[in-house]
Amino acid sequence: MKSAVTTKEQLRERIKELTCLYEVSTIIVQADYDYIEDSLKAIAFSLKKALQFPEKVEVYINIPGLKVLSGTIKKTTCSIWSDIPVFNIIKGKISAHIVSKDTSEHYFLEEEQALIDNISLKIGSLLERIEIKNNALLLKRQMERADRLAVLGELTAGIAHELNTPLANILGFAELLASDFKANTAASEDLNKIIQNAIFSREVVKKLMFFSCEMPQEMTMVNLVPNIKSAINLLDATFRKQQVKYIVKIEEEELWLRADTVQLTQIIFNLTMNAIYFSPKDSLVMIEAFQINNEIILKITDQGPGIPENLHDKLFQPFFTTKPTGEGSGLGLSVVHGIVSSHKGSITAKSNNKKGTIFEVRLPK
Ligand SMILES: Nc1ncnc2c1ncn2[C@@H]1O[C@H](COP(=O)(O)OP(=O)(O)O)[C@@H](O)[C@H]1O
Ligand SMILES: [Mg+2]
Description:
Strand order of the largest sheet: 6-8-9-11-10
Number of helices: 7
Number of strands: 11
CATH class of the largest domain: Alpha Beta
Bound molecules: adenosine-5'-diphosphate, magnesium ion
Mean pLDDT: 88
CATH superfamily of the largest domain: Histidine kinase-like ATPase, C-terminal domain
CATH architecture of the largest domain: 2-Layer Sandwich
Low-confidence stretches: none
Strand content: 15-25%
Distance between the termini: 61 Å
Order of helices and strands: HHEEEEHHEHEEHEEHEE
Largest sheet: 5 strands, mixed
Radius of gyration: 32 Å
Helix content: 40-55%
């Protein structure tokens, strides 16, 4: 690297540098956050133009998920570069390369290193602004989803109420008829089907009411550890029947939080039932609980097929199910979501297509 020698040369370089910085600032102000590739290309060309030997230099910008080049770089003889920091972490790099064989005639100036450093900071601040905007968008989407769930909750609560009485009647009268028709096997079988279906529907209604928080909530101080152990004991038979192994990993003897015991059990049940359902034979389901600061964390991990990214938004919506008709109501996770929200906690599903799914519930103590 050399420094510009004559005053005239220095002045010329300084003007080019300032023009370039001005251009880059303008490009960044006008950047469309959804198409930053165009902005980065413009920056690359602006820098190329500002360098001493524009026709012998190519600029390369590399940020996560995007690579931008001002031209082809086959062979580099000499280069300068600068790291692009985003919130103080290096996330990318901008470099300029001399693509001529002759390094004695073509070289970089110290001023050019300063220019590229300056531009990398500007790109970094653009990336920071994009990240801030995306986070705000994510938060907005989450809030909208919560709103939607709340509205659906109210609607379904209404429907559930309306269905409760006629369902109880169907069940009651079918049972009466069944005792009258004991002698008639064909009729008894049919009546039994009616009864079984009415019971299934009653369960759905119960879940709906649960989900919409129609069930009264009784908050007390609860130790989660025995709660998990007794819930998993009850599920032991189901694990065996499906030939799925499990481990409960809790290092602490007591994990206290303010919660409704019945609803806590419901969370553990619904998540574990899903994990079992989606687990292949002989695979492992892990149930973990621990605390970090003011939160109790419950984690259920399976080795099933995982959940495709595009379904993550729908998982907690009432009636969303990928199970065959008659097997799933699609209410389990929305019930869990309702309970977790009413406890001011949060729930997330992380998935790994190879290793399965992790459901993580965080509840304040
Ligand atoms: N552990 C899991 N592994 C894979 N998919 C899951 C898991 N848990 C839930 N899902 C997906 O979420 C959907 C909704 O679950 P849920 O609300 O419990 O309803 P249901 O169990 O009746 O289908 C399931 O049908 C399935 O597609
Ligand atoms: Mg379920």
